[in-house]
Amino acid sequence: MACRRTERRDASRWVHPAPSTFPHQGFVAANGLTVAAPGLPEAEVAPDGVIAVTLVRAVGWLARMDLRSRPRPAGPLMLAPGAQCLETIEATLSLFAGLDPRAARDAEFGLRAVAAGDGPLAPPDRPLLEVSPREILVSALKPAAGGPGLILRLLNPTDGAVAARITIGFPVSEVVPVRLDETPEGAAVRVDGRRMETVVPPHGLRSLQLVCP
């Protein structure tokens, strides 16, 4: 997560005016309100706290000489037929109080059922994967690319290191920290039954290879 100031920048010495919009990765939070806007990666927060989400960016020209936002053209002065995106657009916005990256991620991805055969992988009262605290997000859980087991990636979007507590609902024989290319990195993580703990650095990603017996 990144914090931004809402007051307008002094762009008196800039060639172009300073933009008031900014890119985001799924949600924007201001004044105790969080707006999750999956698929709409641009927003603006006005100095008075109003949150504006860009629905669609459309153009009729590649460049023009009379734009307040860009006094100098960014390309040839040509018409762009069909670039207005004149069609029905559906968007989903989720609003909730406070700052909760996990709730914003849940609003973006939701739930999807996948057929996995007749035999249950775990008892009804045992989750296959449980991660806490809420500040830690599950970025991926996938088969390992070049070895046995699964790769679990944990994301910490906060400004401080967080100790992630993980509970696995299936047996594992070894848990090895790995890099993004899935090569080993550091000593194996101690597993207590089906529970383990690892520290995820601020704004960092921690990848673990879960080796099944």
Q: What is the chains' assembly state?
A: single chain
The tally of helices reads 1
Can you tell me the CATH architecture of the domain at 129-211?
Sandwich
Would you count the extended β strands for me? 14
What top-tier CATH class of the domain at 129-211 fits best? Mainly Beta
> In terms of structural class, how would the helical and strand content be classed?
mainly beta
Task: Name the helix and strand elements from N-terminus to C-terminus, one letter apiece.
Answer: EEEEEEHEEEEEEEE
Distance between the termini: 37 Å
- Specify the biggest β-sheet: 4 strands, antiparallel
Fraction of residues in H or I helices: under 10%
Principal-axis shape equals elongated
Describe this structure in words.
- The protein has 213 residues and is mainly beta.
- It has a domain at 129-211: Immunoglobulin-like (Sandwich).
- 4% of the residues lie in helices and 31% in strands.
- The chain is built from 1 helix and 14 strands, in the order ββββββαββββββββ.
- The protein has one helix at residues 101-109; strands spanning 22-23, 27-30, 33-36, 42-45, 51-53, 94-97, 129-132, 137-143, 150-156, 162-168, 174-178, 191-192, 195-200, 204-211.
- Strands 7-10-13-12 form a 4-stranded antiparallel beta sheet, with no helix packed on it. A 4-stranded antiparallel beta sheet has the order 8-9-14-11. The chain has a 3-stranded antiparallel beta sheet with strand order 1-4-5, with no helix packed on it.
- A hairpin with a 5-residue loop joins strand 4 and strand 5 (51-53).
- It is elongated.
- The mean pLDDT is 88.
